[in-house]
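Hey Z.,

So I finally got round to the arginine thing we talked about over coffee. Here's the setup:
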Amino acid sequence: MAQLWGGRFTKETDQLVYQFNASISFDQKLYRQDIRGSMAHVRMLAKQKILTEEERDRILEGLEGILRDVESGELLITQEYEDIHSFVEANLIDRIGDVGKKLHTGRSRNDQVALDMRLYIRDEVQETDALLKKLLEVLLRIMKEHTETIMPGFTHLQKAQPITLAHHMGAYFEMFRRDQMRLLDLRERMNYCPLGAGALAGTTYPLDREYTAELLGFYGPMLNSMDAVSDRDYLIEYLSAMSTVMMHLSRFCEEMILWNSNEYRFVEIDDAYSTGSSIMPQKKNPDIAELVRGKTGRVYGALMSLLTTLKGIPLAYNKDMQEDKELVFDAIDTTKGCIALFTGMLHTIHFCKERMKDSARHGFTNATDAADYLVNHGVPFRDAHGIVGRLVLLCIEKGIALDDLPLEEYQKISPVFGQDVYEAISMETCVNKRLTIGGPGKEAMEQVIGIYEKYLNEM
Ligand code: ARG
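And the result:
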């Protein structure tokens, strides 16, 4: 057991207690951030004449050596240390001797761990953002290819009005773009440095907190040392943002699972992203989409769990907070994995255009447009609604689409109908007349695609 605090104790820690308390098995993930933070701290100590320049240089050299050796695999992070902070410090002292003991001057593990975690999340925000960008690029490519691919739009999972595949994909583009903005937004709020807060009440050393904040790329120091060691809001915000990403992915997955089913056949998920059944030879299952949908629960769980852990914790640092790490690490790995896999699946998916169009034609998705036709010929909308309702009933009886009903039948129900009704209710007209911004009409869609293209180029 290697721990940093044996001085005032007369008994060895019980082995089980030691294990229960230790965090090295998971906080070893923070070794880079821990070393980086220590380097900034040491530079600042020397600048403030709390350490000499030689001491600074020897410590920096020692820390660089540890980083190098961990990265190369030469130095293993083993379970004999309590946490990553003890591991780094003990190794430093092994390497450079007593001067290594000066590293922790004016610092506590409380501000140290708060810093490590912030640095970690800041990096992860960037990685998540990059993964979302790749997903948006695939979405935009599909949108560009499918501005004329007609399909039914649904409400209540009932065919409602015709749209295009580009329009449908565009809705997801909006969702994932907002997810990116959420990340950007939380990064702005969290980018302040806790280092120098000490255990809770700052230190008596003349630390330059502005300087360490700047060295580490923060906007400045956090302004209350008690808050600095006990704030985990940014983790809640990050988990909440990840939960929202997962919720969006899960909705998308659900649609791909439905669309891939034999009943819809709107898409075919690529073999590389499907799996077979051990008993039913004909099966090709959308397991990846189902797993992403399933893993959503796990990420929500992390959010709920951390909120519950933090509830009722008095100021300032309390050990409960150590529970943040496993939850957050798992949620990050899960979400990043899901975005990457989903992007691959979407990139290789085959869209069955004919099936989509056929489905739109056979669900009375143009009924609103038939009513609008009457309105354009002077019939009040409420009457038009009733007339078209009767036409739909007639078509259901005959088992045909509105497009296939002879003109005489139309005219029997309303003499206002003329030959041009067929043009007015064609799928193409229905879509392309919806031209206000945000709608599926080709021109409106192209305008939006231009905006998205610019967004992705400027990111
Ligand atoms: N492993 C601890 C954590 O993750 C580090 C801080 C420990 N501080 C302390 N006073 N025991 O929260």
